[in-house]
Each structure stands twice: as structure tokens, then as C-alpha cells.
Write a structure and sequence with these properties.
The protein is an alpha/beta fold. The chain contains 16 helices and 23 strands. 39% of the residues lie in helices and 22% in strands. It binds nicotinamide-adenine-dinucleotide. The site of nicotinamide-adenine-dinucleotide (NAD) has 26 residues, from helix 8.
């Protein structure tokens, strides 16, 4: 049995807690590794090492820091297949999807190579008589991030690349369900020339998270995961005086107008609803066709596409559309919610409940489900299912459709499919949701824009990556300078004497 480790001070260490979690192979249901769960003392050791290493890194000029990231990008490309394989093995997603997970992180690293430009401050010449004013962006010190299982490469990179580019030390507490790729990323950063102690990985559960939240030296906490934990981390981190940004769960609606191209809308819904087994915070989980005729046409297009979906292990290569969900508990929760949908009166148009995969009976595979005639009061509408289950809520008008998305407690992403520019424009302007797609089902912004939802999908002020990340990972210091006299008065040639 493989025993994983922490990555502290440039070395793999087992930690002191004696506690471990099982790392499963979701395709087979077998335990494939054990990961140590850090104690408060393990976290304290990592923080101490980070605090010692950080000042020299902050004093390294930003161009040299960026060069480490440049090299890291080369290494990510070199090891892309290896990273994708390790990621699929623990997460279960298909190999192309796993490579996409690494790629979307890599793109943020590329953005962060622009640190010398992004960290340039502001300068006002002659703000007053003989007075100049300038502001600098300085690193926070020791920063930390807690990441979810569903993007074990991308989200750690979204955090540590800007943190490190800005001159901070960063401690990553990845998901205990798929910790191998985060450890590999830390090794690659070391190979790229990052000094010891600047990026450390502390594996663990609530104990490690609480140790970070309560450690005085840790200046900031980034979190991505479910909303209840996001709320807890935001409240605790803020109460302890830290800078905190937390990104939570989602229930993303896609509105389909009567004038939409129904084939395009159905293709988009199948990819966005079932890709990665629905385990994406930007997955579309609610389709909102406007008008019964639109709904009937959409369902007619969706059903054959969904019935054709190929579910299987990543090892089957390109022959698979999506893989297993992450744990037996996740599978059981999805199955429970599907039953509530049936009991509460939704129409199960595609029923994936009897899905079985020969040879993988113990894996966490879930067949695709499509519900029609879902209503606002049902649990499958209110809850984030995080599985291959798409709900259709029929709206009679555009106003009803936009109102549904606006009234939902989550506000991560949304999309509208229409051929009418005016409707699309109105939707983009009025919707109270952070990321909007117009005929684009998963509108994840690219690295140089920022990523973040609204409402219960976020706690904090600044978004992830893009210019916001450089604000989050730095403090502004503003200097007002006056030099009342100077060498230009002329040299003094006689020995100074007291008057
Ligand atoms: P999770 O909340 O269970 O875990 C996230 C992290 O928090 C993990 O590192 C975990 O170890 C830690 N954690 C879990 N319980 C904790 C506790 N009681 N105290 C302290 N720390 C704890 O989330 P997950 O299941 O790993 O990820 C799926 C969730 O993440 C979904 O809700 C999804 O929508 C959300 N997500 C959001 C975004 C976004 O950007 N908004 C992106 C990806 C995933």
C-alpha cells in the first residue's frame, strides 16, 4: 500500500499525528493509498519554516520569481500525461478532462509570470510642493489555501501561483481524497528552482484546517469547497484577523429561449450537465426552457443524447464521457436525492438508477439522470447534487426564468441560449450571478479575467486569479516623501563645526 506524505521544507515527511485517511480508486472502490492527516504541531512546523524562508523570497526581484514560474510551466508540459494519469486515478475523471484540469491551472501560472508588471505600484510626482507620493504592493508573508477534491491541480495553482509570484510563502492543504497531484506540483516547483519552504503541502482534515485558521503567523486563507465549510472558514478566519476569500457551492441554471438552436442547446447541456460526472462547480444542473413547446423540443433532443453517454473508468481512454463520482458517500447522496425527486413528483425522464458497469461493480459509477417538471420546492432543485443529474424546470416566460436563477441562493454561474441579442444583453445586465455565458454553457473566465460567484457561492471581496489575485496576495503601502534639502545645494568643503 502506497503511503503518501506531507511536503515540508523541501522534503517528504510523514508527520506526527499517526492518523491517516484512505485514498480510494473511485473506479474500483479499492483503497489505493494512505495519506497522513496533519496534527496541529505538523502545521505549526510548516508555518515556522515558511516564515523563515519568506523574507528572502520577498526580497528576490519579481522577474527572478517569475522565472521560477516560467520553468514550472515547462515542467508541467513535460509531465502533463503523468499528472493527468495520477489525477484520473484518484479523482476518477477522464484523461482528457484531467489534462484540462492541469491546463487551466497552468494558464494561471502563465498569467502570474507577468508579476513584474502586475506588481508595479503607482506614483504621483509633485503631489505637493516638493512632495512625491507612491504606493507599493508588498507580500502578506505566510499565506495558506484549502482546496476541494474536484480540481486537484487547477485550484491549488490558482492559489499558489499568484501568492508565490507576489513574494509570499504558501501552505497548501489539499483535499484528502486526491492528494497525489498537489504533492507532485510542489515537487515540480522545487525542480523549477523555488527555494525550500516557499511552497509546502500539509495533508489533512479539519484539524489541519483549524490549525491554519488559528495560527497567528498565517496572514491569509483561500478556500474553495462546499458552502457550509466556506462559511465556517470565512467566519473563523475573519474573527482571527486574517484576510480570507472563500468560494462555495453552486446550482447553475441554463435558460433556453424558444428561438435557441435546440441541437446546440442540447449538446451544451449534455456536456455541461454530465461532464466530470457533474462534479464541477460550474456544471449546469438546472435547465430552464421557456414555454412548454421549447421544453418538449429540448427534452426530445436531450433524451437520445443522454442515453448514449458512455460511463466508465479513465483507463478506457477516449471511449468514456465521464467516470465515477469520488466516494461511496457521494454516490449514496446522489442516489438519495434522486429518490426525493421521484417521491416529490418530478418526472424521471432518463432513469440511471439501475446503471451497473460490468467488472466495476464496486466502483462509484452513477448512471445519467434527467428530470422534467421539477419545481422550486423540491430538494433536487434546492440542493447542490454534484452528480450526473440534470433537472428541468419549465418556465412560462423569460421573466419567470430569470427570476428563478435570481431567487436561488447560489450565484456561481449561469447561461442563456438564444439568438436574440437584446434578450441576452438584458440577461447579462440584470442577473445577480458572477459568471454568465451567452450561448456558452460553462463560462469559466480565462486566467487574465477573474473567477468568482455571487450570493452563497462566495464569501469575501476579491475573486480568484486575474488582477484580483494580485490584490488579494499583497498589501498596499503608500509613501509620501519630501526631501527638504539635498546635494544640489552644493558641496560643503570646510569641516562642519557646531554653530
Ligand atoms: P468540501 O467542502 O467537503 O472540502 C473542501 C476542503 O475543505 C477540503 O480540503 C476538506 O479537507 C476541507 N474540509 C472539509 N470539511 C471540513 C471541516 N469540517 N472543517 C474544515 N475543513 C474541512 O468540498 P469538496 O467536496 O472537496 O468539493 C466540492 C464542493 O466544492 C462543491 O460544493 C463545489 O461546488 C465546490 N467548489 C466550488 C468552486 C468555486 O470556485 N466556487 C470550485 C470547485 C468546487
Amino acid at each position: 500500500m502506497q503511503e503518501l506524505s506531507h511536503y515540508i521544507d523541501g522534503a517528504h515527511v510523514s508527520g506526527t499525528s499517526g492518523r491517516f485517511a484512505d485514498v480510494m480508486n473511485p473506479a474500483t472502490g479499492e483503497v489505493q493509498a494512505k495519506v497522513p492527516l496533519a496534527s496541529t504541531e505538523d502545521v505549526a512546523m510548516a508555518v515556522e519554516i515558511a516564515a523563515k524562508a519568506q523574507p528572502a523570497w520577498a526580497a528576490t526581484n519579481p522577474q527572478r520569481r517569475a522565472r521560477v514560474l516560467m520553468k514550472f510551466v515547462d515542467l508541467l508540459n513535460r509531465d502533463m500525461d503523468k499528472l493527468a494519469e495520477a489525477l484520473s486515478r484518484e479523482h476518477g475523471k477522464t484523461l482528457p478532462d484531467a489534462a484540462g484540469d492541469v491546463q487551466r491551472g497552468l494558464e494561471v501560472v502563465e498569467y502570474c509570470i507577468g508579476a513584474p508588471h502586475l506588481l508595479k505600484g503607482e506614483y504621483t510626482d509633485s503631489a505637493g510642493p516638493g512632495i512625491d507620493m507612491y504606493s507599493m504592493r508588498q507580500p502578506l508573508g505566510v499565506t495558506a489555501g484549502i482546496t476541494p477534491f474536484n480540481f486537484p491541480a487547477m485550484i491549488p495553482m490558482w492559489m499558489f501561483a499568484p501568492a508565490i509570484a507576489c513574494g509570499n510563502a504558501f501552505i497548501l492543504k489539499p483535499s484528502e481524497r486526491d492528494p497525489s497531484v498537489p504533492l507532485m506540483l510542489a515537487e515540480l516547483m522545487a525542480e523549477a528552482g523555488l527555494p525550500k519552504g516557499i511552497l509546502q503541502v500539509v495533508n489533512g482534515d479539519k484539524e489541519a484546517v483549524d490549525a491554519l485558521l488559528h495560527h497567528d503567523v498565517v496572514q491569509s486563507i483561500g478556500f474553495v469547497g462546499s458552502t457550509p465549510i466556506a462559511e465556517y472558514i470565512y467566519a473563523t478566519g475573519c474573527a482571527n484577523g486574517k484576510r480570507v476569500q472563500c468560494f462555495g457551492g453552486a446550482k447553475n441554471h441554463m435558460i433556453v429561449m424558444p428561438d435557441a438552436d435546440m441541437d446546440q442547446a442540447a449538446d451544451a447541456l449534455v456536456g455541461a450537465g454530465y461532464g466530470a460526472a457533474g462534479e464541477r462547480c460550474m456544471a449546469i444542473s438546472v435547465a430552464v426552457p421557456v414555454g412548454d413547446d421549447t421544453a418538449d423540443r429540448l427534452i426530445e433532443k436531450l433524451v437520445p443524447r443522454i442515453e448514449k453517454l458512455k460511463v466508465g473508468p479513465y483507463t478506457a481512454g477516449n471511449d468514456v464521457d465521464y467516470g465515477p463520482v469520488v466516494t461511496a458517500a457521494a454516490k449514496a447522496n446522489i442516489e438519495r436525492l434522486v429518490e426525493t425527486g421521484v417521491d416529490q413528483g418530478a418526472e424521471l425522464v432518463v432513469d440511471g438508477r439501475d446503471f451497473k458497469l460490468q467488472g466495476y461493480e464496486d466502483g462509484y459509477f452513477v448512471g445519467p439522470h434527467l428530470f422534467d417538471k421539477v419545481t422550486k420546492d423540491m430538494d433536487i432543485y434546492k440542493t447542490e447534487i454534484f452528480g450526473p443529474v440534470l433537472s428541468t424546470v419549465r418556465a412560462q416566460t423569460y421573466e419567470e426564468a430569470i427570476g428563478l436563477a435570481m431567487d436561488h441562493e447560489y450565484g456561481n454561474g449561469t447561461a442563456i441560449f438564444t439568438r436574440d441579442g437584446d434578450t441576452a444583453r438584458d440577461f447579462a445586465n440584470r442577473i445577480n450571478i458572477g459568471m454568465v455565458g451567452i450561448n456558452v454553457p460553462i463560462p469559466v473566465p480565462l486566467a487574465y479575467h477573474t473567477f468568482g460567484g455571487w450570493k452563497k457561492s462566495v464569501f469575501g471581496d476579491l475573486n480568484q486569479h486575474g488582477p484580483d489575485a494580485f490584490k488579494f496576495y499583497t498589501r498596499t503601502k503608500t509613501v509620501t516623501a519630501r526631501w527638504p534639502s539635498g546635494i544640489k545645494e552644493g558641496g560643503e568643503f570646510s569641516i562642519p563645526v557646531m554653530e
